[in-house]
């Protein structure tokens, strides 16, 4: 997928944030990255593009988080941003039914354009405003399951659920990357579908070493 | 940016530009007595970048963008440079695919509002200037009885001297309507543009403002 350069054991993932304006995309990602880099807080960076370095089961993961403009008039620009993404975080506001509809539209579009290569997370933000809830958790969860996405509940204000969301997403993206790697190793290579020009240079973690003829460095 | 030869340098300059746009965004936000240290995401940045591009009259930008996108190192396309290059591309795409017809449809609320404001302003003014002797002369000369209203409205363009009054009217009218307002009118051969954004009024007058630009800005304020 999109793991480029680096040592043998590092992943680079691109994650795109989608969702209507004012659902809290920016606050969410800011909360996520700010907590980690508390001391050297945003001096040059702004919240549109943020990176985060993680260490998951001994693997280095570089996460590049791309924020998008959520206003309806910029909807057409979506493909420019989400092309080549490994994961998408689709955010809606639990108090706003429309924003959940927008998420459904995004899911349809992403599945159409990128197929199943992309890990989807559907995120109900602002759970601190539960008393004004307009989107039921059950509905959102069953929808997420029906499209092969996972559903999360977060609050950027209270900083709840965000860490888990990104950690889980990373793990899923790593799995997806390894599956693709394996299929490449077996000489398939078709699933990479040309669009993903970059291949992962990475060893299998603990899974049985099935192929890996062209991969190991 | 066009001067630089290597795509790397161009991207470097692009990042500097983006940084200064963020700077001015933060500066204007904090001067508007909103929360200090606002951090902007793409929701705010993309419209601002688009606006800056429209105002900047950079003709070579499209080709520079293509140049960078084609020649930049793929690993860099994943990074911050890649992100802002993508944003630049998106803004350019947005401008180039901008359809006046489509805009007119989405614009309509603001446009109609500003037009009605404009109409009210002009008719109000013409009522006042009807008392002037000069005006009466014109009226007598041009249209003896019925079509008074039309001729007065038209000729009041010439008569106006200060812009304070219509300005004030716009403000008081708009204040009640909401947070973001804009109005365009033509006076003394100049296009005047007044807008309210984030609680602050601003204005400019320019004879060279092209319609597309103004249309976009009103649109953006929505």
Describe this protein's structure.
The complex is a heterodimer of chains A (217) and B (222). Chain A has a six-stranded mixed sheet with strand order 2-3-1-4-5-6, sandwiched between helices. Chain A has five helices and six strands, in the order βαββαβαβαβα. Chain A has a single domain, classed as P-loop containing nucleotide triphosphate hydrolases (Rossmann fold, 3-Layer(aba) Sandwich). Chain A is α/β, with parallel strands linked by helices and 217 residues long. The C terminus of chain B is likely disordered. In chain B, strand 1 and strand 2 form a beta hairpin. Chain B has a domain of 129 residues. Chain B is mainly α and 222 residues long. A three-stranded antiparallel sheet of chain B has the order 1-2-3, with helices on both faces. Helices cover 66% and strands 10% of the residues of chain B. The longest helix of chain B has 30 residues. The radius of gyration of chain B is 22 Å and the shape is globular. In chain B, helix 1 packs across helix 3, helix 6 packs across helix 9 and helix 6 crosses helix 10. Chain B has ten helices and three strands, in the order H-H-H-H-H-H-H-H-H-E-E-E-H. Chains A and B meet through helix 1 and strand 3 of A and helix 2 and helix 5 of B.
List its salient traits.
heterodimer; A: 217 residues; disordered C terminus; B: 222 residues; three-stranded antiparallel sheet; 3 strands
CATH class of chain A: Alpha Beta
Number of domains of chain A: 1
Strand order of the largest sheet of chain B: 1-2-3
Using only C-alpha atoms, the radius of gyration of chain A works out to: 18 Å
Strand order of the largest sheet of chain A: 2-3-1-4-5-6
Tell me the number of strands of chain A.
6
Proportion of helical residues of chain A: 25-40%
Broad shape of chain B? globular
Spans where pLDDT lies below 50 across 5 or more residues of chain B? 125-179, 207-222
Count of helix runs of chain A: 5
Largest sheet of chain A: 6 strands, mixed
């Amino acid at each position: 997928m999109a793991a480029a350069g680096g040592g043998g054991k590092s992943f680079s993932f691109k994650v795109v944030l989608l969702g209507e304006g004012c659902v809290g995309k920016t606050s969410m990602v800011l909360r996520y990255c700010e907590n980690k880099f508390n001391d050297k807080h945003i001096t040059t960076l702004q919240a549109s593009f943020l990176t985060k370095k993680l260490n998951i089961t001994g693997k280095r993961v570089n996460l590049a988080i791309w924020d998008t403009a959520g206003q309806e008039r910029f909807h057409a620009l979506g493909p420019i941003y989400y092309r080549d993404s490994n994961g998408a975080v689709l955010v809606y506001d639990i108090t706003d039914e429309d924003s959940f509809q927008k998420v459904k539209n995004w899911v349809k579009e992403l599945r159409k354009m990128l197929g199943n290569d992309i890990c989807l997370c559907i995120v109900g933000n602002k759970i601190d405003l539960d008393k004004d809830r307009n989107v039921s958790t059950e509905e959102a969860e069953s929808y997420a399951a029906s499209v092969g996405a996972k559903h999360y509940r977060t609050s950027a204000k209270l900083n709840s659920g965000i860490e888990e969301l990104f950690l889980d997403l990373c793990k899923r993206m790593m799995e997806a990357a390894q599956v693709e790697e394996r299929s490449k190793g077996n000489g398939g290579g078709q699933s990479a579908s040309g669009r993903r020009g970059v291949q992962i240079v990475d060893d299998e973690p603990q899974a049985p070493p099935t192929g890996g003829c062209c991969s190991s460095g | 940016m066009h001067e630089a030869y290597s795509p790397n340098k161009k991207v470097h300059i692009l990042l500097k530009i983006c940084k200064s746009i963020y700077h001015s965004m933060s500066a204007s936000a904090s001067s508007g007595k909103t929360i200090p240290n606002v951090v902007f995401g793409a929701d705010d940045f993309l419209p601002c970048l688009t606006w800056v591009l429209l105002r900047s009259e950079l003709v070579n930008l499209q080709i520079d963008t293509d140049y960078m996108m084609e020649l930049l190192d793929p690993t860099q396309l994943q990074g911050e440079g890649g992100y802002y290059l993508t944003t630049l591309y998106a803004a350019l795409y947005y401008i180039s695919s901008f359809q006046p017809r489509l805009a007119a449809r989405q614009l309509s609320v603001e446009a109609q509002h500003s037009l009605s404001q404009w109409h009210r302003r002009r008719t109000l003014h013409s009522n006042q200037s009807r008392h002037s002797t000069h005006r009466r002369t014109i009226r007598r000369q041009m249209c003896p009885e019925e079509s008074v209203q039309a001729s007065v409205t038209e000729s009041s363009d010439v008569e106006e001297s200060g812009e304070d009054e219509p300005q004030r009217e716009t403000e008081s009218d708009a204040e009640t309507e909401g947070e973001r307002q804009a109005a365009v009118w033509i006076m003394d051969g100049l296009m005047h543009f007044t807008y309210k954004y984030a609680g602050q009024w601003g204005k400019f007058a320019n004879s060279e403002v092209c319609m597309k630009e103004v249309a976009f800005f009103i649109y953006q304020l929505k």
